[in-house]
From TrEMBL:
Transmembrane portions of the chain: 51-77
GO molecular function, one term: lipid binding
Gene3D superfamilies the record matches: lithium bound rotor ring of v- atpase
Domain V-ATPase proteolipid subunit C-like: residue ranges: 12-74
Domain of life: Bacteria
InterPro entries (UniProt xref): ATP_synth_csu_bac/chlpt, ATP_synth_F0_csu, ATP_synth_F0_csu_DDCD_BS, ATPase_proteolipid_c-like_dom, F/V-ATP_Csub_sf
Any one GO CC term of the record: proton-transporting ATP synthase complex
Positions bearing the site annotation: Reversibly protonated during proton transport: 61
Lineage, top ranks: Bacteria, Pseudomonadati, Pseudomonadota, Betaproteobacteria, Burkholderiales
Function: Key component of the F(0) channel; it plays a direct role in translocation across the membrane. A homomeric c-ring of between 10-14 subunits forms the central stalk rotor element with the F(1) delta and epsilon subunits. F(1)F(0) ATP synthase produces ATP from ADP in the presence of a proton or sodium gradient. F-type ATPases consist of two structural domains, F(1) containing the extramembraneous catalytic core and F(0) containing the membrane proton channel, linked together by a central stalk and a peripheral stalk. During catalysis, ATP synthesis in the catalytic domain of F(1) is coupled via a rotary mechanism of the central stalk subunits to proton translocation.
Family named by the database record: Belongs to the ATPase C chain family.
Protein name (Swiss-Prot/TrEMBL): ATP synthase subunit c
Source organism of this protein record: Pseudacidovorax intermedius
Length: 82
């Protein structure tokens, strides 16, 4: 039974990292595209747009980092294995 729990944990960790990276990747792509469009329209406000972009990208990236942490917990500190 422990072997099955370990296999399921490995598969769940793979899904957590795989699916947890798709959302942030799409969101970051849209954010960068919108920021570049805004900078192209108003080049004089590029500094403010860039600062806002970097803060937004950091917020978006936290979701991928949380998925990585959950996957690492499942792999190395699994609470389901005795």
């Amino acid at each position: 039974m422990d072997n099955l729990v370990q296999i399921v944990s490995i598969v769940a960790a793979a899904f957590a990292v795989g699916l947890g990276a798709i959302g942030p990747a799409l969101a970051e792509g849209r954010a960068v595209a919108a920021a570049l469009d805004a900078i192209a329209r108003q080049p004089e406000s590029a500094g403010a747009i860039s600062r806002t972009l970097f803060v937004g990208l950091a917020m978006i990236e936290t979701m991928a980092i949380y998925c990585l942490v959950v996957a690492l917990l499942l792999l190395f500190a699994n609470p389901f294995v005795r």
